[in-house]
Amino acid sequence: MHIKTTLAALAFATAGVAHATDVHVVSSGGFAQAYKDLSGPYERASGDKLVSEWGPSMGATKNAIPARLARGEHVDVVIMVGDALDKLMTEGKLELGSKVVLADSPIACAVRHGVPKPDIGTVDGLRRAFLQASKVAYSDSASGEYIKRELLDKLGIQQQMQGKAAQIPATPVGEIIAHGEADFGCQQRSELKPVQGIDIVGVLPAEVQLKTQFAGAIVRGAAHADAGRALLRFLAAPANAPAIEATGLEPAAAPH
Predict the structure, then answer these.
(1) Phi, psi dihedrals of residue 162, rounded to the nearest 5°
(2) What is the pLDDT of residue 9?
(3) How far is Cα 16 from Cα 26, in angstroms, rounded to an integer?
(4) How far is CA 36 from CA 17, 87, 111, 146, 187, in A?
(5) CB neighbours of 62 closer than 8 A, spacing ≥ 6?
(6) How many C-beta neighbours within 10 Å does residue 207 have?
(7) Is residue 48 classed as helix, strand or coil in its secondary structure?
(8) What is the bridge-based pairing of β-strands 77-81 and 212-218?
(9) Which site from 10, 47, 190, 243 is most exposed, i.e. has the minimal number of CB atoms within 10 Å?
(10) What is the pLDDT of residue 204?
(11) pLDDT means per 10 residues in the chain (256 residues)?
(12) Which of 132, 247, 142 is nearest to 195 (CA)?
C-alpha cells in the first residue's frame, strides 16, 4: 500500500483520538487476512497496539465471537459476518450505531494443490464437482450454513451428499483439503486464499452464489471505544480498499 494513502487514511481515522492504547480486537476468518495486512501500518502510524484474537462469527466453539462476548472477554472491536453482528447488536452486546460495513465476500471452492481442477463455472459443473468428490468439506460459519441449508438443495443433491459432505468446526476448510482429509471444499474466498497446499478452482456460479457481508462494531462497554472507532474508520477508508481487495474480498469503499 502506498505510504501517502495509508497516512491519509490514518489521519482521517485517528482524528480526535488523543492517546495511544491497546485495542482488543476479535476478527472472524473471512476478514482476517485483510485485517492482518492492514494492522501493521495502522499500529506504526497511530501508536496504538492491536491485541488480536480470532474466532468464527457463529457456531458453538469456545472461540466463536458470541461465546467470547457471553463470557465477558475483554474485547473492544469485533469484525464478523454482518448478519451475526446485527444479531449481537439487537441482543445489546454491541454499541448501537457503531456498525461499519467493510467488505463482501464470495464463496469459492478449492482442491488439493496439483490435482485436476473441476470446472465449476456453471451450476451443472458445480453439481458434478460435488458428486464426483469422495469427501467434501465446508465451514461451520456463514458459507457452510448456506451450503448445508440451501446450496445442496438448489443443486438437487442433498440426499446424494449424505455421509460424504461434512461441516468442519473451527479449522479452515483449506487446511482440511491440504491435509488430504477432503478432496473438495468450499468457503469464503478470502479464507481459502492464505492456505498453502490448495488450488482455488473458482467462485460459485452467480445463480447460486451467496456473498457474505463483513462488518465491524464496538462492543458495548468497551474500555477503548474511541480507539476502536478510529480503527474501523481506517479499515473502511477508500485508500485501503486495494489491500482488502487483494485478499479476495470486495471492499465496501471504492478505492481512490
Answers:
(1) -60, 130
(2) 55
(3) 23
(4) 22, 25, 25, 26, 19
(5) none
(6) 9
(7) coil
(8) antiparallel
(9) 47
(10) 98
(11) 51 54 95 96 94 91 95 97 97 98 97 97 98 96 92 97 92 96 96 96 97 97 97 97 96 80
(12) 247
Distances (CA, A) of 52 to 78, 108, 133, 226: 10, 26, 36, 17
All three cell numbers of 204: 460459485
Contact between 118 and 205 under an 8 Å Cβ cutoff? The reply is no
**Burial class, 123, CB count within 10 angstroms (exposed 0-12 / middle 13-18 / buried 19+):** middle
Cell output for 90: 439487537
Quote the pTM value: 0.81
* Interatomic CA distance for residues 178 and 158, integer angstroms: 25
SS3 label, residue 121? coil
Q: Which amino acid is at 79?
A: I
> What is residue 10's predicted lDDT score, i.e. its pLDDT?
56
Question: What is the pLDDT, as a whole number, of residue 103?
Answer: 98
Quickly count: other Cβ atoms within 10 Å of residue 180's Cβ.
10
Q: Is 173 helix (H, G, I), strand (E, B) or coil?
A: helix
The grid coordinates of residue 137 equal 468439506
For 17, the grid coordinates are 483520538
Could you tell me if 103 and 232 are in contact, meaning their C-beta atoms sit under 8 angstroms apart?
A: no
- Return the pLDDT at 20: 80
DSSP 250: E
Separation of alpha carbons 234 and 39, rounded Å: 10
Strand positions, DSSP E, 31-172:
49-54, 77-81, 100-105, 107-112, 136-139, 165-168
Give the Cα separation of 32 and 139 in Å (integer). 15
Q: How many residues does the chain have?
A: 256
16: left (phi over 0), alpha (psi -120 to 50) or beta: left
